[in-house]
Write a structure and sequence with these properties.
binds zinc ion, two-stranded antiparallel ribbon, 203 residues
Length: 203
């Protein structure tokens, strides 16, 4: 099933034709100047915002040996991301905060942001996005611990459905020492102190 979907998804001219058919069924007049090129634009947009779905299994990030034996927590906070709700195919967006406790390997700081962007660029659910980022960093860096917090606005909750503008959905997940029953508390507290109160999501 997934294979068939992937093959068909590369047929962008056919996607454009089907979008034109869909807009026509919705009663839109595609001869209007502002709509005449919309099916093609939307097809190209999907190619871009679903890019992570088409470009391989995982982000390409370079990691380095931790020669300096740096062991303190590394935190990258307020990383903006844009994704698309898998249930409604409209955006959810916000900021991500990622922390890890280095062991054998470290990564360039921009690579944490790139990891979030890679997994965001596909139809997603926020919970799964959070887990995928944590799992990838955990596997790639083999750190002593990883924690990921995402705060996002979901347009499917704001412009339709329950219509709750400005509400934030917060998800978090931990690996390794962050969830350790003895030591986890102090690492979680250090991370949460650094990321502070929510509020950097545009509203
Ligand atoms: Zn939704």
């Amino acid at each position: 099933m997934a294979k068939r979907l992937k093959r068909k998804a590369r047929d962008w001219p056919e996607i454009e034709r089907q979008l034109a058919r869909l807009f026509d069924l919705l009663g839109l007049d595609l001869s209007q100047p502002e709509l005449v090129r919309t099916p093609g634009r939307v097809a190209r947009m999907y190619k871009e915002i679903f890019a992570g779905h088409y470009t391989g299994q995982e982000p390409k990030i370079t990691v380095f040996p931790n020669d300096k034996k740096y062991t303190s927590m590394v935190i990258v906070r307020d990383v903006p991301f844009y994704s698309v709700c898998a249930h409604h195919i409209i955006p959810f967006f916000g900021v991500g905060h990622m922390a890890y406790l280095p062991a054998a390997r470290i990564a360039g700081l921009s690579k944490l942001a790139r990891t979030l962007e890679f997994f965001a660029r596909r139809p997603q659910v926020q919970e799964r996005l959070t887990e995928q980022v944590a799992d990838f960093l955990n596997r790639k860096l083999e750190p002593r611990g990883v924690m990921v917090v995402l705060e996002a606005r979901h347009l499917c909750m704001e412009m339709r459905g329950v219509e709750k503008p400005g509400s934030l959905t917060v998800t978090s997940t931990m690996r390794g020492l962050f969830e350790d029953s003895a030591e986890g508390g102090r690492f979680r507290m250090e991370f949460m102190n650094h990321i502070g109160r929510a509020g950097s999501v545009p509203r």
